[in-house]
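Handout, section 3.2

Students often ask what a structure token actually looks like in practice. Rather than define it abstractly, here is a full record for Hydrogenase. The first block is the sequence as you would receive it.
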Amino acid sequence: MAKRSQTALIPDMTHRSVTERIAGLIQDRKAPASWWIAFVISAALALMLLVVLWVVFTTGVGLFGINIPVAWGFPIVNTIWWIGIAHAGTLISAVLLLTRQRWRASINRLAEGMAMFAIACAGLYPLIHLGRPWFFFYLLPYPDTMDLWPQWRSPLVWDFFAISTYLIYTSSFLYLSLLPDFATLRDRAKHRFAQYFYAMLALGWRNSALHWARYEKANQVMAAVAAPIVVSVTGIISLDLAVSIVPGFHFTIFPPYFVAGALFSGFSTVALLAVVMRAMFGLKNLITRSHLDYLGCMMLVFALVVDYAYSQEIFTAFYSGDPNYFNVYYDRWTGPYAPIWWSMIFCNVVLVQLLWFKRVRRSPLALLCLAITSNIGMWLERFQIVFTSTHADFMPSAWDTAWPTTWDWLVYLGTLGLFVFLLMVFVRVAPLVSIHDMRLEIHGSKRHE
């Protein structure tokens, strides 16, 4: 029984009951009212995003709150924030698989879906920030007769490779994990259209020993490849900043700092989605309080790593003896963006200490609140890195402040709506909890009894 408790399973669960419970969410039950509310609101926000983008592209990016020296502004803040969430999703699933953490079965599908839709939102912002997205092919590394080569010194080219690589990998990893579950839905489908639909998605999966052997091997290889891909891609995003000579960017600690920050925001988002989906679809037997406890522990671990990075960043700034670094932190603490920095510290350093208490970690409402504040804190962290590092550069005559405009906020709300809309559609088409991983967990727990 001790092993079963360790895997966070509810006793008396069987392969049949798990399959009927998860597949039944799609095939046997109508969507709950809360799903329809989320679907309609998110669809409206996604449609609003289309309208806002049409206005921005026909008018120009001058609608955004950008200027010189804060040329990157709000779009790049949101790009980095979305990329952090996306990278963490796949890394969480892959690392938990490689380390054989059996409790991953209840949350790995949410993490993989979150990664897929977050990277789609992240990829929009560089195109929006271009102002002329129809010239996006300037970023592609192709030779032509007009000597049009990408500017390899531009971070935009790095972002293209980072985002496109990660998009391909994440979609492949997610689809591979869905294959056995699509076959289950195909075999349980009662309507002809659903049978054809899931048969097409299952790619001829027959549940044979050969299929499972190849699946397990491919899954292990994909998971092993995930870690270096995620670390290198996150490193590229951080190096966009670290290789510059801007004092607020030029920190060698940025690559590991960004990876830890991504994992912190990723575990926070998975915890948020787990609590919401658990309540929306009544999954208390599949996503138990033990799962929430584990997620809370992981949030705390990576929050402490991020907090350590904050301290080292400040130490480096003052130990360097460079007055420009002094000015960056003096400005962050007392300048026009000081409320952003102190709010970030409150969310990412002060509030997360509540996760030391098991009672807080096992409470869905408390964990939901801390997941939201952690995501806000990580977004504020990206904001203060981009804005405070650039608004006061080496030339005091060029110093200026910039703030997001209404159009900035509308685009951000639109991408949030797009993310939720894609997630709502996903959970009605594919199992939001991995059926075959849950069966494997039940099998493993019974074997250890």
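Discussion prompt for tutorial groups: Confidence is low (pLDDT under 50) at residues 1-5. How would you have guessed this from the sequence alone?
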